[in-house]
Amino acid sequence: MDLTSFITSVLTSFVIFVALVLLFTWLSRRPGNAPVYYPNLLLRGLDPWAGRGRGTRSPVGWLRDAISASEPDVVAAGGVDAAVYLVFLSSVLSILVYSGIVLLPVLLPVAATGGALSTIPIPTNKSAQSAQNFSSIERLGMGNVPEKSMRLWAFLLSVYWVSFVTYFVLWKSYKHVSNLRATARSAPDVKPEEFAVLVRDIPRPSPDETIKDSVDSYFRALHPNTFYRSMVVTDHTKADKIYQEIEGHKQKIARAEVVYANSKTESNTEGTRPTHRTGFLGLIGTKVDTIEYCSEQIKELLPKLEAEQKTTLHEKQQRAAIVVFNSRSAAAFASQTLHAQVYDKWTVMEAPEPRQIIWSNLPRKLYDRQIRQCVVYGIVFLIVVFYIVPLTAIAAVTTLENLEAKLPFLKPVVEQPAIKTVLEAYLPQIALIVFLALLPTLLMFLSKQEGIPSQGHAVRAASGKYFYFIVFNVFLCYTLGSTLFKSLTTIINHPAEIVNMLAKSLPGSATFFLTFVALKFLVGYGLELSRLVPLIIFHLKRKYLCKTEEEVRAAWAPVDLGYNTRIPNDMLIATVVLCYSVIAPLIIPFGVAYFALGWLIARNQILRVYVPSYESYGRMWPHMHTRIIAALMVYQTTMIGFISLKKFAYASVLVPLLPASIIFAYVCHMRFYPAFAKTPLEVVVRHDLKETPNMEAIYTAYIPPCLKPDKLEDLDAFEDAQSRATSRVPSI
Amino acid sequence: MDLTSFITSVLTSFVIFVALVLLFTWLSRRPGNAPVYYPNLLLRGLDPWAGRGRGTRSPVGWLRDAISASEPDVVAAGGVDAAVYLVFLSSVLSILVYSGIVLLPVLLPVAATGGALSTIPIPTNKSAQSAQNFSSIERLGMGNVPEKSMRLWAFLLSVYWVSFVTYFVLWKSYKHVSNLRATARSAPDVKPEEFAVLVRDIPRPSPDETIKDSVDSYFRALHPNTFYRSMVVTDHTKADKIYQEIEGHKQKIARAEVVYANSKTESNTEGTRPTHRTGFLGLIGTKVDTIEYCSEQIKELLPKLEAEQKTTLHEKQQRAAIVVFNSRSAAAFASQTLHAQVYDKWTVMEAPEPRQIIWSNLPRKLYDRQIRQCVVYGIVFLIVVFYIVPLTAIAAVTTLENLEAKLPFLKPVVEQPAIKTVLEAYLPQIALIVFLALLPTLLMFLSKQEGIPSQGHAVRAASGKYFYFIVFNVFLCYTLGSTLFKSLTTIINHPAEIVNMLAKSLPGSATFFLTFVALKFLVGYGLELSRLVPLIIFHLKRKYLCKTEEEVRAAWAPVDLGYNTRIPNDMLIATVVLCYSVIAPLIIPFGVAYFALGWLIARNQILRVYVPSYESYGRMWPHMHTRIIAALMVYQTTMIGFISLKKFAYASVLVPLLPASIIFAYVCHMRFYPAFAKTPLEVVVRHDLKETPNMEAIYTAYIPPCLKPDKLEDLDAFEDAQSRATSRVPSI
Question: Quick check: A178 and B341 CB within 8 A?
């Protein structure tokens, strides 16, 4: 890519970005759009244009707000997970800024005066201008330094500088996140998950007792003073179906009533009672009065639900349970202590938040979980390495001829010459795009299949898988290009070869990645900030579909940050920028811009837009930390190879960096990780509760909505339904 | 080795064995030898010739007793560790018996009629008899089966049979040992270690409080209802030295009094008061009256000890402590729960038994421990792989010429021609023998340097190191011989080569290992059973040195089983027999004899001789289990190589065995290991104590003897001495 096209591309992206930011400034000031640009504030009952958000009517108000918000504000708005995500962005930003401060002033002059590229003969058929361009970007990189030059010392020491900056920043960040997590976890407000543990792999009870009975007697024996109540997980799909049906009918009634009320105009005081057809999608079948029909349906369904609830509670008990204790420290003790003599029975772990439980995974057995995990890892490995194979196969099958044969009704459309050309050219690409768009969903599905008990954990697992996919496919495959697969046998026989191959291919792709980073942050962040798609969808829905207040609220109901795709994408940029930081230092300002802008916009979105759907208290951090170190090690390895290629005898001076990184990762993991995997006792008792919490509320939080008794007093009845022992021991 | 010399060697060993057993039968019946042959019984206050041991006067009484003793008897006599060692022996025995039942009748005929060896031309200069011998042992092994023969299927399926027998036996044994451990741990008698936890990495306290104060306030805050008392570890070397001095003087007085009383004969009614010299070894210096002198010394030392105790308790506090809780389950909870937010502070683990604490290791910091472990592992790796190098160097330095130059007084002795020849020939061998004799001690020392807190753990660590040493050096090095080191570069570049090399070298060493196993069990067990060396030492000591009852008791004080060398040696035999089981099935009867006899003799020694010096409740088992699987995998790997060498196309049918072994090891580890590393709650509460235990006694058990207060009531004063806070919160 020559200089002109590079500048053109960056400039175009920049213009789009500015346009989008202006659009955002204009749109976000219109009150009608508030649910799109301030849903988080609205849900927390705050006025978007009052209080500390008062500056938002000014064009740069969002900027000022994003910068001035404190960390507790962020935690209040988006939870600890959002705050940790911001720490991640600012950590990478600090690494790049500290690196850039030294690398840019030192390496650029050293590289620019290296002069290796000017001695390369210009290939034939190239104009003088091309040669000029060739040197203007690439002359500022390491490619311009001659072999065996003593200038290489500057690059070599830069690798050390970047590595130590990374260690320093990561250590401070891990400490910060650890404290953030501890502070949030020791907050005095009562969270149900702090009083509960999840019990899995419950052994088969004796025939004269239910699972509930065996759980109760087991835990009462082991925790005589602290056991409160237990709730056995049930297979409540059927009850849930009936419950959802009732809720659907209730919504329909609400909607019909609004429609009916609106139809009572002056000319038609009676109004028209809304009707619908009972058949498929309301399109066929007999026409009925909606309100009457639905009310009748509900009346019919309610006893059904009640019967189903009873059956579910008593007969569909699964071999997993939530056990509630009467104090935080009792739950912490229980979740960390080995209960049974063999590990595949009565496995105990911290209970997930009620809202993020994946019920269907709870009863999975230990060995089942292990096997599922192995199978899923195998599938993901195949997807990461060979995803292009099935795509090619699909592309081959879905040629136009095949499509026409299978779906003859498409023929008249497809036979149009213009459409045909386009389709023939783009069908494989479309297949690829569809696949890439579906990939995060697929990975999320696979992660859930592992038997993970909570949403947050599944997101972390999916995020890891996606990270491997994009780093392998975008970074490695683009850099190495076709040579990767051609010489796969070479790599297997001589694993060290890959370092040389990477080192040889890296400089050629520098400009591509410069453009890639620029495009990513300018257009990507522009779209993110302006929220054009949710805006359009919201307005369309509100205009044509929504009748009741509730429906309008559902139309703008904000989603969460989507860590499972967001973090891997950021990590990809971090990996790319780190790897090129010394080879082509010019990439550092782009990286700084990416993470600085990312930080700003993420703060804005967290404070105003996204609403967290779960809270894991920053458990994502150890993963991010490990992956930054992994990126650093890829960087260190390629640099060893790259400097060796320059026939520089001291390249081996870099080798100690690799064990240093491993030791650093190990020490961090040893020191900080346990507090992320378990609850430290220190944190539990920091603000011990003065008064006893409302234990009924804690217990009820874990009852799925479709099984929830109407009144709190019915809790005993709920427990009795699960138990066979009629004379229940009273639980205090 | 030809047949004659093989038979000669085995027969000689057998004769020695029979002679030793007869000697044992004769010697053990003499009452004067009871302290040598029945020390365990004596210590437990049982009469060796009464009760259930009544048959011991008959020559085979010991055999009947060893067989008829039940497992609880073994646990009562030698603890769970001894019982687990017997389970290990019987497990290997079962594996070999089950294997032999199938392999011997099937493989011997198949091999004998293979006829591959008879087609090999007899080398020149060999008589017909040699050729005859060649076939008689080796014709019964796999070497006699021709290449590509379908007979190899029998050998291949045998490998499967042996593997599955091993899985089956190991699974049952692990289950058995796990139950054994659980039963022993849930016994109702009060053990101090069940109420205590060991706290390490205590952070530096604030200047106005001692470490003791900070421990107390920290644990009282986290465990308000269950904390009993804490004892900070102190550096009591100096106090201990004074204490030992006093004890020494007390012993001297006792001895002198006996000597004095004996000297009062009829002719000399006054007696002679015993005297000694105060200088080096009692040889030089002024002559003093022993009783008077020692009493005076004690009088002088007692106030010194008291002062030193005070200083030690208050000023030599280390950053580790033993914290005692008032219930078993509280201690179990505390030992398994993460306490501090960062893992390198307040690390908590189960307390070791008081008698096996290695005090000097307790205050070592987490990072210190990690670094020490790395360094020790590095040293052990070097010792295992390159131990021959320093030995050669030492041998070169300690030539006779050098010795003469350094130690001229040796010259007249060394210059004798006969002595000179012997020394010159044997000096390197002597160096090797001395090194091998010192090796277990060296490995034990190294293991203790890792910062391990308990004796039992150090023994396990040393045992592992010794296992690697002997398997690598005896098995691999003998089998591969010089080819191993010559082709070390080949192995590094092509790791798969080692399989072929092993496979090629194995059959040649079969006869050697047959003899090795026979020698090992016949002579080794003979010596073990007859206890000739302890017998001689005991009689010599009693006759010439011992004066008081106490000294006689010290002379026969039995040691423990010495797991750190015993188990690796047994494992070596197990590895050898497993690896040759299919190649030369004749080794199986030898292996069966080794483990059967070993089991019998170990039972006899455990029931009557050895006294355990610590109890780890079978924590050695997981290590033995893993190492048997490792031996199995070495066996499977060599068999794949060996059958491939026979150009048998189906050799790859064996490959699935390797992942099967790994999965088996993983499942066992996952299912059973946690109950060995931690205390399961189930086990703790199985027999909950009816009455409160004597908490003072539990606490006192952890006070080192040199610091122990004279009366139990002084415990509060002992605690106060460690604390700076004068108004101590009363502990209930």
Answer: yes
